[in-house]
Amino acid sequence: MKRMLTIMRKELIHIIRDPKTLSLVIVMPVMMLLLLGYAVTSEIEDIPLALVDLSKSEASQRFIDRYWISGFFEITHDVKNEKELLELIDDGEVKTGIIIPEDFGREIDTGGSSPVQFYIDGSNPMIAQTAQLAAETISQAAAQEIFIENLSKRMGSINFKLPIDARIRFLYNPNMKRMDFWIPGLVAIILQIQSLLLTAFAIVREREQGTLEQLIVTPIKSWELMLGKILPFVAVALINVALTVGVGVFWFDVPVAGSIPLLFGLSLIFLLGSLGLGVLISNISTNQMQAMYIASFIMIPAFILSGLFVPRYNMPRLAYYSGFLLPVTYYLEIVRGIISKGVGITYLWPWIWPMAVFSLVVFFLSVILFRKRVD
């Protein structure tokens, strides 16, 4: 223990003597969370819409109000004809447009049917698909309401009800806030990236600076050296856990539904494995550039295979099972489970034990591969 504490003291001195790097280590996760939190959200709203209302009736105004109230569209231009509307779309000033015909109000009041033309700029498929779904849903809801009103007028006092009363309830995220889904995932990914980078250069730096020879002549054991190098960075990484979760709660207004101590305890297991993986990379690398390339080879799949952007059950079998080789895959489920669902250790156990096994295996591999000699 005394030998390991000596290595830890040495690493802490390295960290303290480099305040610029230490500042980056502390500030970078917060900056990444703020930038990615706003950048990766797929929340699409206030889509610019141009309106051609040739009817100018009460019915057309009620129909238009549905689009404005929905939050998906923002009526930015009220133009006179189809030509002006298409010019706005061509110029990129609006993404969507509606043309309401002149006889719209008369047809609606008399129980008839009136076509409404809806234009969508398809150059951005994500915006186009959202606009299409929102427009179809709003139009169908409006048509259903008008149909019921007309039928009620004709049938007098008869109480008309639809045969199916579908009532939907959302669990865990009733307001469907996408930030509540994104922020926990970003916390996991950011910690994975930083923990790898923190330790990926540990042994390589010793080798390039010529200080590895000093470690060779000491009586320290391999496992003592590995723990001595990892534990100081664990303390730094736990500070980053607190910072990133704090930014998610107080800046992005993402509530933590579960236990904070449980989150930190399981984060500690994850960080030990991730930092150990960085040391393992450092062990098998001959220089810092090589360590960076190997770390990138792990970080890029972490974005794709962990389930941050694409649900893992939709992936091909090879990609799905490859995700189990990454510790962030397990930690992502744990963080989302605690923050979003508030579940406890009983429900998280299927994700906890593989992550713990991974941490132990990585640490022992680092010990085995480390050789107290200069190659």
Relevant terms:
375 residues, mainly alpha, abc type-2 transporter like fold, four-stranded mixed sheet, 15 helices
Plain-language structure description:
With 375 residues, this protein is mainly alpha-helical. The protein folds into 2 domains: 2-41 and 178-369, no CATH class; 47-154, 3-Layer(aba) Sandwich (abc type-2 transporter like fold), CATH 3.40.1710.10. Helix content is 66%, strand content 6%. The chain has helices at residues 2-16, 19-39, 58-70, 82-90, 104-109, 125-154, 179-200, 202-209, 212-216, 222-250, 260-284, 288-305, 317-322, 327-341, 345-369; strands at residues 47-53, 73-78, 96-100, 117-120. Strands 2-1-3-4 form a 4-stranded mixed sheet, with helices on both faces. β1 (47-53), α3 and β2 form a beta-alpha-beta unit. α2 (19-39) runs antiparallel to α7 and α11 crosses α12. Mean pLDDT is 78; it is low at 160-168.
The largest sheet, given as strand count, sense and whether it forms a barrel, is: 4 strands, mixed
Indicate the radius of gyration in whole angstroms: 29 Å
Mean pLDDT: 78
> What topology, given as strand order, has the largest sheet?
2-1-3-4
Secondary structure elements and pairings:
Layout (H helix, E strand, L loop, with lengths): L1 H15 L2 H21 L7 E7 L4 H13 L2 E6 L3 H9 L5 E5 L3 H6 L7 E4 L4 H30 L24 H22 L1 H8 L2 H5 L5 H29 L9 H25 L3 H18 L11 H6 L4 H15 L3 H25 L6
Parallel strand pairs: 1-2, 1-3
Antiparallel strand pairs: 3-4
Helix pairs in contact: 1-10, 2-7, 2-10, 3-6, 7-10, 7-11, 7-12, 7-14, 10-11, 10-15, 11-12, 11-14, 11-15, 14-15
